[in-house]
Amino acid sequence: MDFAFGPEDEDFRREARAWLEEHLAGAPARRDWERELGRGGWIGLGWAEDGYGNRRADLTRQVVWAEEYARSKAPPRSGHIGENLLAPTLIAHGSPEQKRRFLPPVARGTELWCQGYSEPGAGSDLAGVRTAAVRDTGGGPPGTYRITGQKIWTSLAHEADWCFVLARTEAGSTRHHGLSFLLVPMDQPGRIEVRPIRQLTGTSDFNEVFFDGALAEAGHVVGGEGNGWRVAMSLLGFERGVSTLAQQIGFAEELGRVLRTAAATGADRDPVVRERLVRLWAELRTMRWNALRTLGGSGSPGGAGAPSVAKLLWGGWHRRLGEVAVLVRGAAAAVGPADWSAALPYELDAAQHLFLFSRADTIYGGSDEIQRTIIAERALGLPKEPRGRP
């Protein structure tokens, strides 16, 4: 695919850049920022359908918007799960009623979503979920499910209005059978509890979510009861698309800081360090070319392994960047602020945060081992890995 930007794309770039410069003044709160993006029509550019309050843009303009957003240092998105995961899934599998109900609030930035997939015993092995949803027979509203179980590593659950939950609706089912994809309101005091998980970095973006008889409407099952595995796998295919290019712009900025630090500390005079820095730069360029190739439709055979290839590339790369970031700092990377009295509780600097957070990059979103299995089985057609004990 020829991914050169034409004159109309550059006009779109100027429009996006001007809008961001105007509306970023004043450092808006994250939730307010989602509404501001919605009013500007910037949510849902890549949706396969319009008419829900979003504007449509072709692939090159989606890339332009993603690049300009990253370069503007706009706030991290609170609505990306609804925009980039739920919405494409509803467009592909949802009923007309579900689309009319849920897509406009996502496009307006007024309803935020979280993802109820991983569980303590089912992380990368998603087919092991145990959270159960049963038809309510205890006097609740007609046509509802009651959900009981626990989800973990749920990003932004503390802010979300809704959660899409993969749960078992068929008693006694195992693995990918008997699962359903339910849309669950989070405002259910006494039935849903959200507990933040404190990370190595001191932040709490992830959460545990406990469902104790939480209610979900039967009309909010996407794709039909028992078809949750198919819907869930379809959603994971939407997880890594144009956004990977914007992610790489952030990576380039982080690499730039590491290079400047290496020059300032003299670490770049070490031939081993210099080789690692050059390799990081070359690998980042390779990731960009791979992302453009995948978006252009010429990725791995059938496209089955393309998301897993991308995850393997950037997860390992970012982790190695974190290691080099503290290496070039030397001993200073191991200590806190010079003025401890002004920095309580303890705050990490950018390099320390990068090192600690990137340790998880090869685990969350599907571990490296799981990604390699997907590539082997679905893209290369190799024999499936044995399941269970011999």
From TrEMBL:
SUPFAM superfamilies in UniProt: Acyl-CoA dehydrogenase C-terminal domain-like, Acyl-CoA dehydrogenase NM domain-like
Pfam families (alphabetical): Acyl-CoA_dh_1, Acyl-CoA_dh_M, Acyl-CoA_dh_N
Domain called Acyl-CoA oxidase/dehydrogenase middle: residue spans: 114-212
Cofactor(s), by name: FAD
Domain annotation Acyl-CoA dehydrogenase/oxidase N-terminal: ranges: 7-109
Entry GO terms, CC: plasma membrane
Entry annotated with the keyword Membrane: no
One GO MF term: flavin adenine dinucleotide binding
InterPro entries per the UniProt record, alphabetical: Acyl-CoA_Oxase/DH_mid-dom (IPR006091), Acyl-CoA_Oxase/DH_mid-dom_sf (IPR046373), AcylCo_DH-like_C (IPR036250), AcylCo_DH/oxidase_C (IPR009075), AcylCoA_DH/ox_N (IPR013786), AcylCoA_DH/ox_N_sf (IPR037069), AcylCoA_DH/oxidase_NM_dom_sf (IPR009100), Mycobact_Acyl-CoA_DH (IPR052161)
Entry keywords, A to Z: FAD, Flavoprotein, Oxidoreductase
Residue ranges annotated for the Acyl-CoA dehydrogenase/oxidase C-terminal domain, each copy included: 226-379
Protein family membership: Belongs to the acyl-CoA dehydrogenase family.
Name of this chain's protein: Acyl-CoA dehydrogenase
